[in-house]
Automatic annotation (TrEMBL):
SUPFAM superfamilies with a match to the protein in the record: ARM repeat, RING/U-box
Species whose genome carries this gene: Spinacia oleracea (Spinach)
Function: Functions as an E3 ubiquitin ligase.
Gene that specifies this protein: LOC110782639
Domain U-box: 21-95
Biological process, per Gene Ontology: protein ubiquitination
Coiled coil region boundaries: none
Catalysis: reaction(s): S-ubiquitinyl-[E2 ubiquitin-conjugating enzyme]-L-cysteine + [acceptor protein]-L-lysine = [E2 ubiquitin-conjugating enzyme]-L-cysteine + N(6)-ubiquitinyl-[acceptor protein]-L-lysine
One Pfam family linked to the record: ARM_PUB
Protein name: U-box domain-containing protein
GO MF annotations in UniProt: ubiquitin protein ligase activity
Amino acid sequence: MREKRIPAMVPLEPLDAAGIQIPYYFRCPISLELMQDPVTVCTGQTYDRSSIEAWVATGNITCPVTRVPLADFSLIPNHTLRRLIQEWCVSNRSFGVERIPTPKQPADPSLIRSLLNQATSVSNPVHNRIAALRRLRGFARDSEKNRSLIATLNARDALVSVLFNSDEFESSELKHESLALLAIFPPSDAVCTSIASDPDRVGYLVSLLFHPSSIDVRVNSAALIESVIAGTKSADLRSFICTSDEIYVGVISILTNPIPSPRALKIGVKTLFALCLSKQHRHKAVSAGAVNALITRLTELDKCDCERALATVELLCRIPQGCSAFGAHALTVPLLVKTILKISDRATEYAAGALLALASTSEKLQREAVNAGVLTQLLLLVQSDCTERAKRKAQMLLKLLRDSWPDDSIGNYSDDFNCSDVVPF
């Protein structure tokens, strides 16, 4: 194969994979990395799709190699080069080189538009409409670019109209497919407000939280409920959504499902947090079993979800029912103490805030916290680079716990930290 000359403006550094050099014509001229999805622009030059898309997205209108203005921005997949790269990867498998996957091509806008029309046309047979929605969902899962394309074609409004169609003969499967897509494409703020202000629509979403045979329907309903709460600007409407006792039971049942998926846990925690932002209804979450659900699942969550779960714990500890329920759970205090300085600054702040609320209500909980090793954690916390809010909570908690410190350690702790010097929270 004849070698192509790369302009001097692109520094070509030796790139090795597991001790072997990657052929330069397999590397993207922009990133200098092995191309995963080679595409050719109108000038005949080939780039990795992600690199050239980023180049154009930043406002560049010329070919990076030739500097010739791009007459159009079409990207043609270079299947031949991609296959050669894959063959090279396979032939070097013994050196630890992994075969690049065959990329899925971006959806054609005309096809997406046609599928949306098929899905929303009431004259179209139901099974065809369902098939169109499933194809749309498949495209949405393939890539962020596909999701962006679907969103720009006014898909949200069309899906909302299908989901909340009042025709009693409308297929439930059709509605569920629409719901699954809406979980990917949350409706606009205006649509969220229209849903929140309609008791029938809210009631329908709550009923789907109890779907007898599909956990996916339940999770998707929770996802849409969270989106509606987040997208509704009116505090009264948000409070109205949170009024229903059943909504808490339904969301918490997702968290207590025997074998929840990571997505179910993520959406369950996110929706419960959104519900608990409404202070006047937090007691309903406690009554529905939020305390046991949060404590039981806390160690199974990833960083972001754990932060949100701890924020929910702190919110619930601000009401008497919540404090009482968390205080009665044997694992609450040890888990909160263990969380400090272990996950993130935010998690530490929320855990310290919850411990402060709990310790303020009971000497028994103060002793539990001390026995769990909270003093060392708090002293490390006030000397760390965490948030000022977390430090203030730690200072207040140290002062509160002073009477519970072990007698043989009071002197040592007092030397390290002056508990009289507390900044009010």
